[in-house]
Amino acid sequence: MAPNNGGGAKSTSFTYCVGSPTWNPTSYIADTGLHARAEVHLEKDDFHAAITESFALPKRDTYVYHAINSVTLAQVQHAVSLGAANNLHAWYRDPAAPSNPHPRPPPRSDIEVYLSVFDPATATASALKTFAANARKDSLRRRVAEHLLAKRFLHPELPQLQIPRRKPSSSSSAANAKAITPNPYLAFAAWSARSLEWCGPCDLSETVASSHHVLPVLMHHFGCACPSYEALEILRALAAGRGVVDLGSGNGYWTFMLRAHGVGPVVPVDNAQSAWRVTWVPDTVVADGEAWLRRNGGAPDMVLLLVYPIVGGGVAGGEEGGFTRGALRAYAGDTLAVVGTQNRNGYTSFRGRTMDEYMAAEEKEWVKVVQIPLPSFPGKDEALFVFQRGDRAPKDIKTGGEAGS
Questions:
Q1: What are phi and psi of 260, to 5 degrees?
Q2: Which of 103, 107, 203, 382 can bridge 376 by disulfide, Cβ–Cβ 3.0-4.6 Å?
């Protein structure tokens, strides 16, 4: 992570964005005109201009983004301009023959319906049902809809998990009196789905081993996974006034957005082993996550949030799944939220099994209360999982629940 002040008061010399000394997230989020200009650039597939204008970067920016691969903005824009050439949009493949891409990309109309699932102005469950109901048999859209509906779960004993849709901010109703905090990551994620021809994850996308050049840039500027309005509001509801420790907080985008949604206090903790071009909060506590929990008595009165927890093991070093296991050993609270993959591609927490599969097999005192899809970058399949235990956990632990209702 970029250098920070270790959790103290905000420093006047703090740099939020490498190469842009005057940029700061609060001003950026509030600048609706800037967001509109970025959207215009994205409509023209000018990703380079959208990023440089959004983050006040020089037009001939030379920063090298290191993540899945190492790229500059100019190289990424060139890859975008190639379109689907060289299988750059080959997100859907037959699991029995992964070298063979699906012959037809999803139509734009199906992509738009997929994106509507994450629009605050829609009721997520209803949007998912629409996504499935109007899909042609044997289409990619149907496979994606069936996959997302099969995975989605809200515990029936927790009605506060039903997040109502938000009407446009012009509404004068009391429920909409407070405007929704802009989520610029969602705008960039929506563009990536449209430009890279992606209508969501399914069984045909699980075997994709590569990604697109755009992803390292989005990771550096926003983070590894994009929060949705529903996910942020569910976390606010389950926190119920308690604090949240964002363990392995990276560049702090989830911390920033949770604070903007009225969750607090949110304490970002990260060991700073990864470098980020953009840092969203100036008060990250630089520490080992498990050690921080132990020093704070296991944080019994806080929600534990793990966003894209590393797998570890192999060439990465350490124990496979060690970060997640260590956090669970040290945590003394009753609400665990994990943002990670909901298929077995091994990108987060554990190789070969999902977070809910691990919890069901190894941590039986925990009850799954939430599993909802997040807006996923092409080739990915992200979700928010939430588990509870003790007095706060629902006593009826049956697995039936909302799967789109």
A1: -65, -25
A2: 382
H/E run at residue 80: helix 73-81
Tokens of 373: 């899809």
d(CA 364, CA 344): 20
Match 């990260």 to its residue by tokens: 270
Using CB atoms within 10 A of its CB, is residue 225 exposed (0-12), middle (13-18) or buried (19+)?
buried
Q: Are the C-beta atoms of 238 and 246 separated by less than 8 Å?
A: no
Are residues 198 and 91 in contact, defined by beta-carbon separation less than 8 angstroms?
Answer: yes
Give the C-alpha separation, 141 to 146, whole Å.
9
Spatial separation of the C-alpha atoms in residues 34 and 39, rounded to whole Å: 9
- DSSP annotation of 377: P
**67-73: long-range contacts, CB 8 A cutoff, minimum separation 24:** 67/215, 67/216, 67/219, 67/220, 68/211, 68/215, 68/216, 69/213, 69/216, 70/216, 71/213, 71/216, 71/217, 73/47, 73/48, 73/217
Token pair of 295, please? 């020093």
Contact 362, 392 (CB under 8 A): no
**Which amino acid belongs to residue 335?**
T
Nearest to 265 by CA among 252, 254, 255: 255
Instruction: Provide φ and ψ at 40, rounded to 5°.
Output: -65, -45
Q: Which residue has the tokens 């190289």?
A: 75
Smallest CA-to-CA distance from 328 within 219, 404, 266, 247 is with: 247
Distance CA 236, CA 244 (A): 10
pLDDT for 315 equals: 55
Instruction: Identify residue 377 by its one-letter amino acid code.
Output: F
Residue 270 has pLDDT above 70, yes or no: yes
Residue 167 and residue 160 in contact, taking contact as beta carbons nearer than 8 Å: no
The C-alpha atoms of residue 250 and residue 223 are separated, in whole angstroms, by 7
Which domains are assigned to the chain? 25-81 (no CATH), 105-167+180-211+224-405 (3.40.50.150)
Q: How is residue 28 written in tokens?
A: 């950026």
Q: Exposed, middle or buried, 247 (CB in 10 Å: 0-12/13-18/19+)? A: buried
In the predicted model, is pLDDT for residue 229 greater than 80? yes
Mean confidence (pLDDT) of the chain: 90
pTM (2 d.p.): 0.91
Q: Are 57 and 32 in contact (CB under 8 A)?
A: no
Distance CA 85, CA 82 (A): 6
